[in-house]
Amino acid sequence: MSETIEKTNSINQPRYGCSLGSLYTAAAIPRVIPITHCGPGCADKQFTATAFYNGFQGSGYGGGSVSPSVNASEKEVVFGGAERLSELISATLKVMDADLYVVLTGCIADLVGDDVGSVVSKFQQKGVPIVYAETGGFKGNNYTGHELVTKAIIDQFVGDYDGPKEEKSVNVWSLVPFIDTFWRGDLEEIKRILEGIGLKVNILFGHESNGVEEWKDIPKAEFNLVLSPWVGLELAKHLEKKYNQPYLHIPVIPIGAQETSDFLRKVGEYAKVDSEVVESFIKKEEDYYYYYLENFSDFYSEYWWGLPAKFGVVSDSAYNLALTKFLVNQLGLIPGRQIITENTPEEYQDFIREQYTHIADDVSTTVDFIEDGYTIGQELLKTDFGYKPPLLFATTWDRDIAKEINAGILEIGFPASYEVVVNRSNIGYRGALSLLEKIYTTAISTSA
Amino acid sequence: MSKQIKKIAIYGKGGIGKSTTTSNISAALVEAGYKVLQFGCDPKSDSTNTLRNGKYIPTVLDLLRKKSKVDAHEAIFEGFKGVYCVEAGGPAPGVGCAGRGIITAVELLKQQNIFEELDLDFVIFDVLGDVVCGGFAVPIREGIAEHVFTVSSSDFMSIYASNNLMKGIEKYSNSGGALFGGIIANSINTSYQKAIIDDFVKKTSTQVVEYVPRSITVTQAELSGHTTIEAAPKSQQAEVYRNLARKIAKHTESRVPTPLETDQLREWSAQWADQLLAIEAGEVRGEKESI
Question: Residues of B with catalytic annotation?
């Protein structure tokens, strides 16, 4: 596994959308409508890929067929699309009610050099809650786009603040809405457990977010929590300068009682929460968790027909690291192959690699960064998963390979087209229990 | 059956006299009885003005701006002795993509088979300066023009632009693009100017098609909104343009040029700078004694 994997010149079975896909970062905030300044088809492709054939998450208040688009044609290329965008914004304001509009540019506008900033600023000057982000496809993928959009909202809408901070309040920057298939349930669980130890939590996306009012509160928070291997770090550094807000970076999204309790202790200590409050919440949650785990253990120890011993994870770094930790530490499974697929910026790769060297006190493993589906498949075929059918935590793209290596497959990342996701979570205390159900239902039904 | 149309593109640095030269070539060719279409590929859209009494014409992109489907005939205007004039046009300065505009305009005429329909002998594209992006390289891509000429003075910036153009041609030459016909040396009045251009064409394996001297006749004609051919048909300058047009009409073999690398070009121009200083100081050196 230590040999260098040669990068191909193409990406088969992509595992992310382009920067414009972060229109779903905007759409994930209650009562926010994204407006796309791009060619026809771009926004629709992002919708079908990111929000539809990825857990069938639904378009929400402002996504899907709701998001207005310039649908730029050759005319907008040659003469510039600024006028058309201005028209579209005016028309949108007449018929669509939102607390914030987020204009996202596609490749055309960014290549031609449309001055979108000046178009949008005219509306801003009139008091319209509107911001813009340049998210042309060549700027990167959803993950980089997510940071561009969040930064745009903070800089252009939330604005400056030098008032007092609210004690024990935190902004959470974690999973990326929509591209992370289970973001809704997962962010809810993060909010629930952080509130459990007495914090005021700005979760910022999804049903548990208080929408733009909550975003306006971002500068008042005592600190930022970056709960992911790298996404959100740039933003946290920006906020540190902008609002003099420190940040706590925890790369492992906690799954299961052990990791989650550790996580809460770390955050509690950082936020100077009374440790008794933290411990009493942990006790309550662990009681609940282990009640179910105890009953699950009958199955775990007695099942006669064999359970998987090894596993592979093919996903973005956030889920990859989180799952690997959980599966090793809490279920005693052996890591077979870990592949991170989101085109992690190089500057973070060594840091992430390092995390895999101490998955447990006595377990160290490696991780590869591969984007091309063909190469991923070839690497999985080469991997020795032992005699028993392994478990593969991956995506729809990896189903064929899963069959070849006789693995039970769980779709846990983009695209998850054979998975319907409503509000299920896989993380924290509660999510881990439903993840357990899913893991072992898959394991024992693979041979059915 | 339509005859073989000779498609020519003329490039050159802005302000070097491209449109003046192109319009005079067009005028000389129609005067000689050929059917010619001049296609201005510059957002300034003034390439064909002197063929039409100094008047601007609506551009292809003006028409496209108003409606999505355009009949190319609406963009074609007749000028001096029936020469057909088309201007690609472009967006307002600083917005949109002028390069894409050129592509759109050229494609529109090509799709509607205008060149064949008009039974032309010559199509001459007059293209803006440096080949800054793919759009301005369209006339040298496969199937648009066959021969490319560049108008250049002996000024180094103008020669740089010609060298850049040659780079573009060299690039497209492998994929069936246009080849290089030669340099139309403009504003050549002294022997050292001629020597500079001659040295450059030698270095780049090409040729000078014609030396065109700077002349007040040209300026007078331009100011009155005409080509020299039309305003001063009997002048010596008109004869220079007629000669040039004859050579272009006869020209059949274009070649892949060998442009200089940036470093080579710098070195080359530095050598010339030394020589020019020497000339200014009245020094006489070896083979350049004739200067």
Answer: 13, 18, 44, 130
Element at A102 (helix H, strand E): strand A100-105
Residues in chain B: 291
A351: number of CA atoms within 13 Å, CB side?
Answer: 16
**Chain A residues with CB-CB distance to B101 below 8 A:** 78-79
CA A332/CA A206 separation, integer angstroms: 33
Instruction: Give A23 to chain B, closest Cα distance, Å.
Output: 24
**Range A301-337 burial, b when 16+ CB lie within 10 A, else e:** eeeeeebbbbbbbbbbbbbbbbbbbbbbbbbebebbb
By CB neighbour count within 10 A (0-12 exposed, 13-18 middle, 19+ buried), where does B151 fall?
Answer: buried
Ranges of chain A whose pLDDT falls below 50: 1
* One domain, residues A206 and A183: yes
Q: Give the integer Cα–Cα distance in Å for A363 and A359.
A: 6
Is B109 strand, coil or helix?
Answer: helix
Nearest by CB: B97 against A73, A77, A82:
A77
What are the C-alpha distances in Å from B130 to residues B94, B97, B135, B164, B166? 17, 15, 11, 7, 10
Burial class (CB in 10 A: 0-12, 13-18, 19+), B126: buried
**Which residues of A lie inside 8 Å of B (Cβ-Cβ)?**
73-80, 82, 111-115
Do A79 and B100 lie within an 8 Å CB cutoff? Answer: no
**Domain shared by A188 and A104, yes or no:** no
Residues of A in contact with B90 (CB under 8 A): 78
Among residues of chain A, what percentage have pLDDT more than 90? Answer: 92
The span from the CA of A146 to the CA of B86, in Å, is 47
Would the CB atoms of A74 and B100 count as touching at under 8 Å?
yes
Is the CB of A77 less than 8 angstroms away from the CB of B96?
yes
Residue with tokens 């903070």, as numbered in its chain: A154
Structural domain for A211, as ranges: 166-276
What is the tens place of the pLDDT at every residue in B186-200? 999 888 999 999 999
Strand B84-87 relative to strand B77-78: parallel, antiparallel, unpaired?
antiparallel
Chain B residue set in contact with A, beta carbons under 8 Å: 61, 64-65, 68, 90-92, 95-98, 100-101, 104
What is the model's pTM? 0.85
Which tokens belong to A278? 């933290």
DSSP lists the bridge partners of residue B8 as: B124, B147
Phi/psi region, residue A288 (left: phi>0; alpha: psi -120 to 50; beta: rest), is alpha
Cα separation, B147 vs B9, whole angstroms? 6
Rounded to the nearest integer, the mean pLDDT of chain A is 95
Going by C-alpha positions, the residue among A172, A204, A178 that lies closest to residue A190 is A172
A413, part of any domain: yes
Looking at the fold, whether A40 and A144 belong to one and the same domain comes out as yes
How many domains are contained in chain A? 3
Task: List residues bridging with A34 in a β-sheet.
Answer: A102
Closest CA to A326 of A204, A215, A202, A432: A432
Q: Is residue A292 part of a domain?
A: no
Note the Cα B90 to chain centre separation in Å.
18
Residues B203-214: pLDDT tens digits?
999 999 999 999
Beta carbons within 10 angstroms of residue A14's beta carbon: 17
How far apart, in whole angstroms, are the C-alpha atoms of residue B136 and residue B41? 8
Same domain, A28 and A82: yes
Q: How far apart are CA A151 and CA A216, in angstroms?
A: 13
Helix, strand, coil % (nearest 5) of chain B? 45, 15, 35
Calculate ∠ Cα B238-B240-B246, nearest 5°.
Answer: 100
- The number of C-beta contacts closer than 8 angstroms across A and B is 43
